[in-house]
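Handoff note, outgoing to incoming analyst
You'll be picking up this chain. Sequence as last confirmed:
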Amino acid sequence: MRCFVIGPIGADDSPERKHSNQLFEYLLQPIVSEAGYSIERADKIGVPGMISQQIIERLIDSELVIADLSFHNANAFYELAIRHQIISMPTIHVIREGEKIPFDVSDHRAINFDLKDLEKCDRFKRELRKQLEHVESSSMGEYQNPLSTALAVRELRSGNSASTVNFANIFEDVREIKRILKPFQVVADSAEEQQKKEQLRREEKIYREEKKLNNGLIEYNEYYDHGDFVKRFSILMDGKGNTFRRDTKTCKTLEEARRYDPFQELPNGA
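Most recent structure output, in case you need it:
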């Protein structure tokens, strides 16, 4: 099975490229590969040919597409529009936390992520797993997107009976109500998420430490003691705050987690 990722790639060394590389390498690739998909991005296509043609082919043929809506990149939305025409195939939307989802695709749920927050990265992975499990358990034709919904309403409106037309009107009214209520749901979800986070902090013992390496890099570690296991989150950064590597490890004890060296094979200069 194939998964194609679309989003803001950007030029070399640009904020968009750094963002896309971190999202692809640390959040998407491990979870998507774990689910049995091969994962690919436009700039990582390793065969010769016209890049636009290759992208369109993958948008049409891939069993799954993940669309990163961050930065509101025009190319990403153009590619998303092409994918939405493949009505029977699933698409998962993701976006940076704090960015507003454009109106035309706001009905489609998107998973938020924050590359600078390890806990939120872990939460993103859990949510992505759930959506992948839903994709695997769903049958063809169950996937919805703005185009498939609009076509369904149009088909209802074209019916000969008053009941089908009324049903189409009700369907659109419900969509509009959901759109109006969505900001309130986001606030409610945020409050619930904060409550869960505070509860976790009360239940867990949290340890933090910082270690300066010989090559001038700094290793930040956080340990979450859940009682029967300890989870370690590690980030490797330079003095300017640039992230080079991330790592997550689950161990049986805090001592084992502290002994684990996630960056032992890292060459000097990262």
